[in-house]
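TA notes. Do not distribute before section.
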Amino acid sequence: MTTPTLLRVGLDIGGTKTEAVALDPNGRLVGRLRMPTELGAERVLATAERAVRGLSFQTGRPLSAFASIGIGIPGAVDRETGEVRHAFNLDLAELQLGRLLSELVGVPVRVENDVTAAALGANHLLELDGTIAYLNLGTGLAAGIVVDGAPWRGAHGVAGEIGHLPIDPNGYACPCGQFGCLETVASGSAISRAWPHGGEHPAQDVVRAMEAGDVEAAAVVARLVQGAASCVRVLALSLDPQSIIIGGGLRLLGEPLIGGIRATLEQWAEQSSFLAALDLPRRVRVLPKHSSAAAVGAAIIGA
C-alpha cells in the first residue's frame, strides 16, 4: 500500500482576508482558498481553524495528512512560542496562536511575521537565487530578506525594518517615536494623511485625481514615488541583492507607482555614475497581482 503524500499548509492572515494554501512535497500548489478574517483574538483563531479545515475538505485529505502548518501574520511574533502580540489591524493584543491552533487541529504549527513569509514565498514562486529583498508597500512599510532560500532576520530580528529609517528629522512623527521615517512617506498610511479627502481607498483616489489633472494629487503621488524609490536604493546599498521584489497592496497602483519608481532610479543613475553602475531599475521586479506569496512562504516556514 502506498503511503499518502503529506501536505504542507500555509496561512496568510491579514486584516481583511485570510488565504490558505496546501503544497505537496515538491512545493506545488494543490489547494487554495480565501475567506474573510474575523477580528479579535478568539475570532482570528477561529478563522485560522476554519481555513485549515476548509483545505482538508477541498483537498479531500484528513487533517492527519497535513505535515505542518505555517502562519504569516502581522504584529510582533515570537517564533519560538508561536505567540502574536500587538497585531492592531486584527484587533489582537495577545494570542498564543501556534499552540492553540495546533491543539485544535492536531498538526504542528509555526508562526512568522507576514512580510518575512511573503519574502520567502516570492523567492519560491519567482524561482530566484542568492540574496533577494522583498519590499512590502502596504498600510505600513517593511522589507523581508532571503539569502540562499532562507530568511535573514539579523541579530535582533529587525533586519528589513526600513520603514523606521529616518530620512527627514523635520518630517512627520512616526508611530515608532522617531520623526521623518520612510514609512511616513512611502506607505498607505502616509497617503491617507497626505490625501485626507480621499474615499475608502485613498491611494487609488489620489492616482485618479492626479490623472484628472489635480496638482495637489500629483505632488502626493510624486512624494510616494520618491519615497518608494528611496526604499529600493536603501535595500540595494545595504544588502546588494540580486532582485528587489515590490509587493504589498500599493503595488496594485501599477504604472503610476512602478513606472515612477523605475524612472526615478534612472534619473538618479544619470546624476551618479556610482548608482548607474548598480543598474537598479533592472533589479526591480513586481509581485504578480494575484500571487499567494505570503501563504506559500508560510507553508515553507512551517515545514
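Switch to the second chain here.
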Amino acid sequence: MTILTADILYAQTKEEKEILTEGSTLYKTEMASWYGTDIFLDKYANKQSNAGGYFSYLSGNKSVCVFFSRGDSPKIIGTFTFDSTYNVNTAVIDGQERELTEQESDLWTIRRAALSEYQKDTLFKSYQGMNPNFIPLNDDKGKRVYILTGPQQQGVVVFGNDYLITFNKKNKLQEKKRLHKNIISIEYGKQDGKLVLTTMHTHLPETGDLILATDICTLMLYEKYAGWAQHNVLSAKNVSIWDCRKNKLTVITKEAWDRINEHQNQKNKK
C-alpha cells in the first residue's frame, strides 16, 4: 500500500534523524566505492594485481575512494574524489602512489580487523550469489565497520544479513552484532506487465521498531534502478515509510497504519 506522506503531520525524533544521517553517510561512501572501482578497473589495469582492496570516506562535501596495495604496510595506489553528483567525468583522479594519512590508516586497520572477524566468526553468514561489502567509518560517533550484503546479479535488492562492528580509539574491537536477523531479497521490475512501485519488508522484534541506517543506504543505492516510489518497513510497533523519490522518512505507529489501511480498503470497496 502506498501512503501519501505529505498528508501526515510528522516531526522526526532524534533517533530517526541519527538513522537518516548514518544511512546517508553509508550511501555516500558506497557511491564513491562503486564509481571509484569503475575508474580503477578502467584506467589502472597495471595496478590491479597489486591491489589489496579499497574503502571510501567523506572529506568535507566530497567523497573519496582509495585503493591500497597488498601486504601489512600498504600504500595508497589510487585516489578518486567525487562531488555530490558522482560523475566519473568530473572526478579528481590521482594514480600516484603515496603513504596513507592517519585517517586512512585507521580506516584500513579497522577494515582489516572486521574482515578477519568475518572470516573466522560463525556470527557472520555468507550466501551464494552474494558479496559482503565492508564500510569502515571514523567520525564523532566513533570507529565502526558496517558489513552489507550485495547481490551479484542485477534485478534484486537485498536487505539484511548486515552487521556492525565497533572499535575503541585504539582500534581494538569492542562489539560485533547482527543488525537484521534475516535476509530479504526483493526482485524489481515488472510483474504481470506492471511496474511495482511500492515494496516492503518486515523487522523481527530483535531488529527493532525503526528502519535501519543500512536499509536507507540500500534504498538510496538501488531505488532509481528499481523504479520504486515507496518502501515500507513494518515492525511490531511502527511502520517506517521511505519516499524513494524524495529520500524522505516518515514513521507512524502500527496502529495508525492499520487504521489507514482499513480506511483505504473500505474506499476501494465502494
